[in-house]
User: What shape does this take?
Amino acid sequence: MQSIFRLNENLQTQGDNMKPLMVSEDILPLGEFKARAASILRDLAVRGSPLVITQNGRPACVVMSPSEFDCMRERQAFLEAVGRGLADVQAGRVISDEELKKQLDVEFGPLEGE
Assistant: This one.
């Protein structure tokens, strides 16, 4: 599992790559998707935005590149972790810096140079 710092770095560098939905370009009827599926899937990574597939004029699914999906999931996990942390603070489930250092020293040993 990535460290939270690496995850946050990924979110900052990749999370903003997804462009906002453009109605004129990013919504496609199912029939057109079927007819051009191979080229649409091939171009998905470079489009930078998800594609909404409609069926009978209504949104049926959203198609996005695997990297966009991974980034979206990482961002969601990060936001959920932040939410849990804020809830812990509000509920008083916190410890002092000194107590944290003691626990880390017990678990991992003191830092070099201390």
